[in-house]
Amino acid sequence: MTDIDAGAELDPVHPVALPVSVHGLSTAEVAERTARGQVNDVPVRSSRSLAEIVRANVLTRFNAIIGVLWLIMLFVAPFQDSLFGYVILANTGIGIVQEWRAKKTLDSLAVIGESKPTVRRDGAATAVSTSAIVLDDVIEIGPGDKAVVDGVCVEADGLEIDESLLTGEADPVVKRPGDPVMSGSFVVAGGGAFRATKVGRAAYAAQLAEEASRFTLVHSELRTGISTILKYVTWMMIPTAIGLVISQLVVKQHAFKDSVARTVGGIVPMVPEGLVLLTSVAFAIGVIRLGRKQCLVQELPAIEGLARIDTVCLDKTGTLTEGGMDVTALRLLGGADEGYVRAVLGALGESDPRPNASLKAVVDAYPAPRGWRCVESLPFSSARKYSGAGFSESDGDSSTWLLGAPDVLLAEDDPALAETGRLNEQGLRVLLLARAERELDDAEVARDVRPTALVVLEQRLRPDAADTLRYFAEQDVRAKVISGDNAVSVGAVAGKLGLSGATVDARHLPAERREMAAALDEGTVFGRVTPQQKRDMVGALQSRGHTVAMTGDGVNDVLALKDADIGVSMGSGSEATRAVAQIVLLDNSFAALPSVVAEGRRVIGNITRVATLFLVKTVYSVLLAILVVCWQVEYPFLPRHLTLLSTLTIGVPAFFLALAPNRERAKPHFVKRVMRYSIPGGVVAGVATFVTYLIARHHYTGADSLGAETSAATLTLFLISMWVLAIIARPYTWWRVALVASMGLAFVFVLIVPSLQHFFALKLVGVTMPWLAVGIAAVAAVVLEVLWRWVDRRFAV
């Protein structure tokens, strides 16, 4: 262990002695710095504030349009023509409540998953929240820990820090006392301590942590697609609405209030006002559902992203297997003495203050010998695959030992590798204990070592891993096991879990991306993968058009997690992995992944369905307005008519359809998929409704003819909209059939109850025209079926 003198340390910029103690601050010094505001108090929010939620749900473009029209209708028309405004109020309220519930869920989970750095205060190590760190705090760090503030190293024991997330430099940086420590970097090997020199907003870590944990709706194909659609809708609405206003108020010269009401009735249905609401509600409820399963969604689009994956890369240790291991055998080599070997292993275990899972098993199996003193140590690194230590033994002799991967430490023709291979084939993990002839700081310390013993470890399979892998196979998601362990051993573990496919030693993978991608497509299990290779493998898969999820819990997984389309970390994983992952499984249950995938598929598949419903209405509303302007006739509907139709054929059904289970894998090109169905559906509905309206204008005469014409047109439009709903609701289940039928019965109820007839100004007159309206709707339904099936065949994606 090396450290700066207890009374001084070096500033990384101005290397002069500064008064500080490596034992940390006193309680009084912490209080003094807190009073001065020198505290790491940047709030890490997992969600928007209540004010932001209200603002985002209320102050929207379409709420403004609807709000103005609503105010106009309150003054010029009966109450029932203003119902659409109250619907918007209810929708907005639902959106605020659901996102507030999601916020509370995320906030509570974020507290559970929050890392607590270890600081030295009053000479003792204490775990504190990140926000409680003050200037000059001495913070201890070890493998997997993330530097949460900027600082300067005061102690180092083989300390290696990865700064690639900040600098892009892949190689770990060896830190010595006096070297700067950058916030946002993480420890890959060794341990040590550093003094905080920048806290709060001055430290880059504050920005990094806030960005990593914020509840956000950005970078989502679904949200971006809906925004694009709404932009085009706005462009269509403006000229159409102007033409409608001129047609109804100027050209026809009807009573002012009636003309205004019909003008508003033409404009309001152009607005797909519930689409954004349902998208937000679907995401929010997804967060709440996953929160109940102890899944922390750090970035909201991760729900959507995981639903789009076709490849999931799994780290074996901590994902397919549990973190703990057990030593099951000790195979001596070269006539080694068992008692001496046990002493060496016990000393190696004691030499590392932060042992990994393999070394913990050794520590549990072999107690530390008396009289042995560690004089130097080499912490384990995923890149080199071994650790080591030099000892002064109880009899005064000196020795240097390495413990690590046999196929890394030994030559390819060494006979010990044959025994290792047989053990690996059984799914066992094998470590080699070897005596080194060189010093630990020698770059070739692993060369010409003397093999002494094989330590056999048994890994505990996760009981839920096999079922989860089976789920991915059924969902056509390819699983790739990527591990730093021996390829044969990893392949045997995968085989026990029912995962078939070729096993590859990653040391033989081509470095060129295209060739690597081809090899990854052919193989299933990859062993002896370095951390940088994991990152390269994720990139190679993405280059072939795959959407890749990466799971892991160790520091060696951080780079791959960061680059994957979706990173999933175990709650017990290192602080660095939790910081870069979009989803954290707080209860460490790999079995929760199917739930996340299912939520994503539910959201995307169902929003695609309901978006079609909303946009069919927008298309036929715009088309009807254009036809009315061209034919110079009264607009056939009042706002109350379209409020009734929208509620029964879109609003209520869409809410249930948006929250229904949906296992279909998400498909790309959201906007194209939705518009391919919405445009023909809206055109058919608009044309059929206008044809009915024109025929009714010739059929009915007299003072009340407009009401009869409107009722006939409403009947046609309702029946076509119901058929659109019936198509969208497929495949049918009992509740979907009941949903469609109940909406139809509700409309019939309106038609037969006199008070509701009066309220909604709907009354079918005669027999001929109503049945003709039904016939036109039936023809339109057939045309709609033919068109949509043609679209399915012509534009299959």
From TrEMBL:
Limits of the P-type ATPase A domain: 116-211
Family matches, as PROSITE patterns: ATPASE_E1_E2
Family annotation (Pfam families): E1-E2_ATPase, Hydrolase
Gene3D superfamilies listed in its UniProt record: Calcium-transporting ATPase, cytoplasmic domain N, Calcium-transporting ATPase, cytoplasmic transduction domain A, Calcium-transporting ATPase, transmembrane domain, HAD superfamily/HAD-like
Highest taxon above the source species: Bacteria
Keyword Transmembrane appears in the UniProt entry: yes
This protein's UniProt keywords: Membrane, Translocase, Transmembrane, Transmembrane helix
Transmembrane segments: 58-77, 83-100, 232-251, 271-290, 610-629, 641-662, 674-696, 708-728, 735-756, 768-788
Signal peptide: none
UniProt GO cellular component terms: plasma membrane
Membrane topology summary: Multi-pass membrane protein
Locations listed in the record: Cell membrane
Name of protein: HAD-IC family P-type ATPase
